[in-house]
Amino acid sequence: MAKRISETMGPTFTKTAAQIGSLNLAEVSFTAVTVQLAIAYTEASAFFIQDMKSKTDRLAEIECGLHTVAANWKQAGEASTLKTV
Fold this sequence. Notes:
This protein is an all-alpha fold and 85 residues long. Helices cover 79% and strands 0% of the residues. It contains two helices and no strands. α1 runs antiparallel to α2. It is rod-shaped, with a radius of gyration of 22 Å. The mean pLDDT is 82.
């Protein structure tokens, strides 16, 4: 499960960040507020791209944590099983 989460969500976050980074919405409108919108859009998209990168980085931590939980669960199950001698 941990590997599947990392393998599916990582590329999704990366693809989303790339798509946001490739949009040029502020450049196609010619109004009096174009400069202000361009600045706001640039800052918002930069924040979003960084947010997607940090989420991708966190996936490795989540995967490691899930492996630890699984190992602990297995060990606890084995330790609590009654055995005959």
